[in-house]
Specification:
Strand order of the largest sheet: 11-10-7-8-9-13-12
Strand content: 25-35%
Number of helices: 3
Order of helices and strands: HHEEEEEEEEEEEEEH
Structural class: alpha+beta
Mean pLDDT: 88
Distance between the termini: 56 Å
Helix content: 10-25%
Low-confidence stretches: 1-18
Shape: globular
Largest sheet: 7 strands, antiparallel
């Protein structure tokens, strides 16, 4: 009986505990992210954006990164679409580096427990950093907050400068966008399904 109980508990741990992926597992994803994310600057601060349509030179970022004058990787950009309700913004950068590669949007939101990777220019650093996390909730709502939501909640906080950056799965598909933190251990952003509904028409087909 004791052996059966131990075996049962081991099985439960395998099912409940999220899998930990190694740096090697993420290597190709990080390379793809590095070719897509861009540094967004303006007179009042910095954010992150990522290419969603190479041909049309469109990038996605967070609406709260809006400024009167915006530069993406040191070239001028203009706002094509602004959604303050879901905190999403599409930029057009005519002189965007042609080697930049568009990321693909996932068809569905990530599942709870799924491993994901966020990317962005946190703390306004010149080099981006990448943070692995696991999805805690796919329908997270903050009380008395009218902007955004329902959020994807991950167990790693986002920091200033990461806003607008992508959160991807192990296949390199965008499952969420960096929007806010809770001031502690959690990162929050709307998921792929809301992004598709609100901004899907701006994504490339490839």
């Amino acid at each position: 009986m004791k052996r059966m109980l131990i075996a049962y508990m081991c099985t439960l741990l395998v099912v409940v505990m999220p899998a930990t992926l190694s740096a090697e597992d993420w290597a190709d994803v990080i390379k793809a992210l590095d070719k897509s994310i861009a540094f967004v600057t303006g007179e009042s601060g910095s954010c992150t954006a990522f290419v969603i349509n190479t041909e049309k030179k469109y990038l996605l970022t967070a609406a709260h990164c809006f400024q009167k004058e915006i530069w993406v990787d040191r070239v001028a950009a203009k706002v094509i679409s602004l959604d303050t309700k879901k905190d999403l913004m599409v930029l057009y950068a005519e002189n965007l580096d042609p080697t930049r590669v568009a990321l693909k949007l996932a068809a569905k939101n990530p599942e709870r427990g799924q491993a994901v990777m966020s990317a962005g220019f946190g703390y306004a650093l010149e080099r981006p950093f990448f943070r692995q996390a696991n999805v805690q909730d796919d329908q997270f709502m903050l009380p008395e907050q009218g902007v955004g939501g329902p959020y994807i909640s991950v167990d790693s906080p986002f920091v200033g400068g990461q806003s607008g950056g992508p959160v991807v799965n192990i296949a390199g598909e965008v499952v969420c966008i960096v929007q806010r933190g809770d001031g502690g251990t959690t990162g929050l952003g709307v998921g792929a399904e809301i992004i598709l509904e609100r901004m899907g028409r701006f994504f490339g087909t490839k």
